[in-house]
Amino acid sequence: MDDAGPQGSSEQIWSVVEFTRRYRLAKREENRLLMLYGPTASLRDLLANAQRHSFIPQPTSS
User: Fold this and answer.
1) Residue ranges per domain, the chain?
2) H, E, C per residue of the chain
3) What's the first-to-final CA gap in the chain, in angstroms?
4) Strand 40-42 to strand 13-15: parallel, antiparallel, or no bridges (unpaired)?
5) pLDDT digit string (tens) for the chain, length 62 residues
6) What is the superkingdom listed in this entry's lineage (predicted)?
7) How much is the pLDDT for 1?
8) How far apart are CA 8 and CA 62, in angstroms?
9) Backbone angles phi, psi at 27, to 5 degrees
10) How far apart (Å, rounded) are the C-alpha atoms in residues 38 and 42?
């Protein structure tokens, strides 16, 4: 069996801007990924390095 077939979905090259819009990431995260990879990156790299920031307030200790 030959492994030289089409690339898997994780090897696809994506636009960083399109990735951040599709996954509803913050503009700050978009800018971080653009600085890290430039305008395009593999889906595997984007999924491994994207960070979602929680909007849920953390409890404060008294």
Assistant:
1) 13-52
2) CCCCCCCCHHHCEEEHHHHHHHCCCCHHHHHHHHHHHCCEEEHHHHHHHCCCCCCCCCCCCC
3) 63
4) antiparallel
5) 344 445 555 589 999 999 999 999 999 999 999 999 999 999 999 999 998 776 556 677 76
6) Bacteria
7) 36
8) 50
9) -60, -35
10) 11
